[in-house]
Amino acid sequence: MTITITAFERSPDGGKGLARDMRVRWALEEVGQPYEVRLISFRAMKEPAHLALHPFGQIPTYEEGDLALFETGAIVFHIAERHAVLLPVDANARARAITWMFAALNTVEPSILELGTARLLEGDKPWNKERLPLVEERVRKRLDQLSTRLGDADWLDGAFSAGDLMMVSVLLRLKSSGILDEYLNLAAYVVRGEARPAYKRAFDAQLAAFTAASHR
Fold it and tell me: Are strands 36-40 and 3-8 parallel, antiparallel or unpaired?
């Protein structure tokens, strides 16, 4: 059965690999699973056909036969469970990898998204000068903890897993902020993720779609 995912017709990130379909593309590339991409406009995201797949009108979605999924964590978890590579065989190691997936999305990402909002959408607010340092402090607190846990290891728990895929994807959002550079081991961790052939294939595919859409 052909796998079809949805992605922005014109991604607001400018092809930098930050749109969330990148996480799904990367996972599919890691497990060697072919897929098709249906590009969707912002208008179409709010129409009934798409809302039937994603009730919150976002991307990506995942369709395979009669299965339809939304939310990147759920999609990547499904891919990892269906195909070898992204989750360890050992039951305990597998459980830890899944834990890191949840940690990336529930513990690390929220403050990073808050920082993006504070910098990009609230910069002109009169209270932003007081708020921004507080948000940055929350980001650094999480990075302090993550940096300590990673130490000098290549990956979070032994071999590369879906937990690392999600964590690297989350940390990539900090590259333009300069904060990630304050943590040498985390910056190197992200570089290792970006250096994976599967990541490069996913990035190139997403960028090609953005470039093609921009020239239409």
Answer: parallel
Q: How far apart are CA 84 and CA 164, in angstroms?
A: 15
Q: Around 158, how many Cα atoms within 13 Å sit in the side-chain half-sphere?
A: 15
Burial class (CB in 10 A: 0-12, 13-18, 19+), 130: exposed
Burial class (CB in 10 A: 0-12, 13-18, 19+), 211: exposed
Going from the N-terminus, what domains does the chain have, and what CATH number goes with each? 3-85+198-214 (3.40.30.10), 91-196 (1.20.1050.10)
- pTM, two decimals, is 0.93
DSSP secondary-structure letter at 147?
A: H
Q: pLDDT tens, 161-191?
A: 999 999 999 999 998 889 999 999 999 999 9
Predicted pLDDT at 120: 67
